[in-house]
């Protein structure tokens, strides 16, 4: 790969990953289900490790694991027999336990497995870009097509259901898209740091506006800015890109919180 | 408009019987007040009719449709529901006008958005309830009473055949209570909708309902007509 292609892939990866994760983040943060992101990113890591051991595409196996988590999480929390945070805790610890079990089972060097934990945006391939691009388009289409239903779900899931909209199906779609976004981003930013790109840009935008359309827009800008600023810092200081991307998103969140018009309003 | 029939309905939640052998028949256009102590199963009864929860045994009929998970969306489209006053995140990114408009989201269907006519209709209903000024205000920032008015406006926006109201006046001032109960009653009579109201306030129930039902420990212990009605 020549230096221009390498730069293109890295910047395109940063923009697409930032955009995809920050859009999903708005739904996850405003619905108050942020821990789902942590849970799914760990499940994706366990899935990727299983894929490496079984010699199948790790991104594919990571997606299958995320999909299973989404399929369990939705109905179990819906039934109300077990609280959603308890379900998440059980899935989280299972994924983590499975990851610790699978990591030593990788034949030879463990670096291929660890790559999915830390991620490396500088090594994204055209296939990785295509996957994150497809997921990004899917997320964008879903947000535009189901905007009013998503808005009502954010407001209150029971009231959304009582209105006669397909609340359950759209909630499951959000969980599915969250899994897809995490899987698509895991190679670029890693299973641990992808959570920063999901929560921080949305949480930063949430400090600024009450308007859901602006929230999606601002979160996208913050997500893309986190990816690009992080990548720029990585080039500048010659360090791995995952950490500066996460830290840039934290900086954006802190800045948004300090200058938050909502905070000033509530302080009055 | 729809009749409502509950035949020997039992609901179990977390291994506890919440409603036990409920039999109730409501004529189309009739309004029923539901009384009872806390934990008697009043809210469960409304959620049940709205298809939000499932029942263990018995049968619920709305018109000729049996309420079950397969038909719940069909039922929800014709049912306006005002829940008990609920806590919400003060920073929630949803405007009060959007909450009122959401009453018609089910009937609008997917991929369609409220047009100017529906927005005008929402503003008209909000004007009747004296909350037009809240249209662009975040829902989380308005008072408990204003939230209840917005939820009533949302239910009326839906133009339901069955109206389910759960403690709709608990946070509303005495002055507004009179006006709003008049608006709801007039609206219900004009359209011939069936109405069930859970309330602790006997004066409201007396004014708005044809019959009362008293629930205790998940069972109906009393059904009475209100003097001067029916």
Q: Segments of chain A where pLDDT lies below 50 for 5+ residues? A: none
What helical percentage do the residues of chain A reach? over 70%
Q: State the helix count of chain A.
A: 12
How far apart the termini of chain A lie comes to 56 Å
β-strand amount of chain A:
under 5%
Alpha-beta content class of chain B: alpha/beta
Instruction: Name the overall outline of chain A.
Output: globular
The sequence of SSEs of chain B as H and E is EEEHEEHEHHHHEHEHEE
General form of chain B: globular
Average of the residue pLDDT scores of chain A: 88
The SSE string of chain A, one letter per element, is HHHHHHHHHHHH
Beta-strand content bin of chain B: 25-35%
Q: Segments of chain B where pLDDT lies below 50 for 5+ residues?
A: none
The beta-strand count of chain A equals 0
Say what oligomer this is: heterodimer
Could you tell me the mean pLDDT of chain B? 90
Describe the fold and architecture.
The complex is a heterodimer of chains A (268) and B (230). By secondary structure, chain A is mostly helical. Chain A is built from twelve helices and no strands. Chain A has helices at 3-30, 35-53, 58-79, 84-102, 111-118, 126-145, 147-155, 157-162, 167-206, 212-237, 242-258, 261-267. The radius of gyration of chain A is 18 Å and the shape is globular. Chain A starts with a helix and ends with a helix. Chain B has 230 residues and is α/β, with parallel strands linked by helices. Chain B is built from eight helices and ten strands. In chain B, the strands form two sheets. Chain B has a six-stranded mixed sheet with strand order 6-7-8-3-9-10, sandwiched between helices. Chain B has a four-stranded antiparallel sheet with strand order 2-1-4-5, covered by helices on one side. The radius of gyration of chain B is 17 Å and the shape is globular. Classes of the chains: A mainly alpha (268), B alpha/beta (230). The interface between A and B is medium-sized, with 30 and 33 residues.
